[in-house]
Amino acid sequence: MLTVCLNQNDSSYPAALKSYLGEDGPNSISALGNLDILKQRKLAAFCSAECPAELIAQTQHLIQTSLQPGITVISGFHSPGERDCLSVLLRGTQSIIICPARSLTKMRIRTEYKKPLDEGRLLLLSFFRTHRHRSDVPMAVSRNRFVAALADKILILYAAPASKTETFCREILPWRKPLFTLASDLNQNLVTLGAKPLDPRELKNWSYG
Question: In this structure, what are the phi and psi dihedrals at residue 6, rounded to the nearest 5 degrees?
Fold first, then answer.
């Protein structure tokens, strides 16, 4: 499977990147996998580096019981909580978009990615230049903006108070995209900011609405 490059003049280039990132939007993006996944409804998932065990269990239950066909989960899947989410998704049937904070060039495709790639339910996206093989903090922040711009709705699994994830939430709030968090007292800081506690029925209804 070959990596393809989409520039801003391509019909497959996501219009949302221009709408939300403006002049900071990438001139081109690299993609590996099924581009049709970009047309589906996309739920972004973000999580702080450390996530309480009860929220990880809640996330697993949410994925297994509430995500419906036609909803794609998009994330960098970098933090432990996000990676745990990815492990559950890879074992299921959901479409997934993985956005690494590095170039796709010379990136090793993990064994667990090969089956969902062959099934057409996995897409890897990156806007980093071919020589950017190692991620750093600024690259991760840019990647998160990229993910949030592509998403239709955003779910913050957990953001520790005063963390980079909480700061990121403050940054994207003016975008006025639907912003949710897991219903828990541990996420009260996000609710105070303006995130809505997620009712699982929201995801079920979204697949039909």
Answer: -115, 125
Q: How many residues does the chain have?
A: 209
DSSP per residue over 182-202, as a string?
-SSGGGHHHHHHTPEEPPHHH
pTM: 0.93
CA triplet 42, 121, 102: central angle to 5 degrees? Answer: 70
Q: What three-state secondary structure class fits 134?
A: coil
Type of residue numbered 46: F
Are the beta carbons of 82 and 106 closer than 8 angstroms?
A: no
One digit per residue, pLDDT tens: the chain, 209 residues? 789 999 999 988 999 999 999 988 999 999 999 999 999 999 999 999 999 999 999 999 999 888 888 899 999 999 999 999 999 999 999 999 999 999 998 888 999 999 999 999 999 999 997 766 666 888 899 999 999 999 999 999 999 999 999 999 999 999 999 999 999 999 999 999 999 999 888 887 775 44
Angle at 167 between CA 61 and CA 138, to 5 degrees: 100
Contacting residues for 31 by C-beta, under 8 A, at least 6 apart: 3, 4, 5, 6, 104, 123, 124, 125
Which residues are CB-neighbours of 91 under 8 A, at least 6 positions away? Answer: none
Q: CB atoms < 10 A from the CB of 200, how many?
A: 14
Beta bridge partners of 47: 158
- Distance from C-alpha of 108 to C-alpha of 37, rounded to nearest angstrom: 21
